[in-house]
Backbone:
């Protein structure tokens, strides 16, 4: 059968079980007692060495816990060392540029400009945009669904139908 080398005394909670082994600290993992030791090392040894905590997003906010604790409460673990203050469980998005300047455009011609929404947070971000201004149109979609670190471009087309100044504000949610 397969064997695994275990150092005695490494895992204090499993010490009584580990110290029962002989054969120069080698044991067969196919014996029932060997499986018990593996379970003990997994539950106590690995867990005791990996008690790092981080942010766990749950409905209504953030709690500081281990990854396994977060799993038990049905949360989304963001990673070891990530604090709950400021709350990382809310989407954090950026929008660039915040102003689109189409410059001078001949009547009945068009120009497209782009803005980008980026998810700078640790959790999924969703949102949408709309416009209702004469001469302006969102041409590349109106919604986004971004994982952390992802971005989505949006294209606005401006096509003036008469001479004069035009201004438009794109409405929407920058981050939900």
Residues:
């Amino acid at each position: 059968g397969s064997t695994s080398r275990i150092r005695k005394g490494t895992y204090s909670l499993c010490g009584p079980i580990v110290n029962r082994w002989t054969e120069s600290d080698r044991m067969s993992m196919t014996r029932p007692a060997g499986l018990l030791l593996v379970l003990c090392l997994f539950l106590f040894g690995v867990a005791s060495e990996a008690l790092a905590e981080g942010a766990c997003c749950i409905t209504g906010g953030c709690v500081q816990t281990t990854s396994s604790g977060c799993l038990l409460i049905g949360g989304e673990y963001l990673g070891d060392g990530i604090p709950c203050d400021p709350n990382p469980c809310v989407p954090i998005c950026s929008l660039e540029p915040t102003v689109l300047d189409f410059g001078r455009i001949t009547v009945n011609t068009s120009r497209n400009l782009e803005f980008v929404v980026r998810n700078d947070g640790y959790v999924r971000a969703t949102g949408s945009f709309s416009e209702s201004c004469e001469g302006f149109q969102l041409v590349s979609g109106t919604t986004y669904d971004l994982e952390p670190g992802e971005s989505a471009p949006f294209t606005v087309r401006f096509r003036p139908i008469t001479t004069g100044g035009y201004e438009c504000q794109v409405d929407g949610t920058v981050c939900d």
User: Anything to note?
Assistant: The two ends are 54 Å apart (CA to CA). Helices lie at 15-18, 32-49, 67-72.
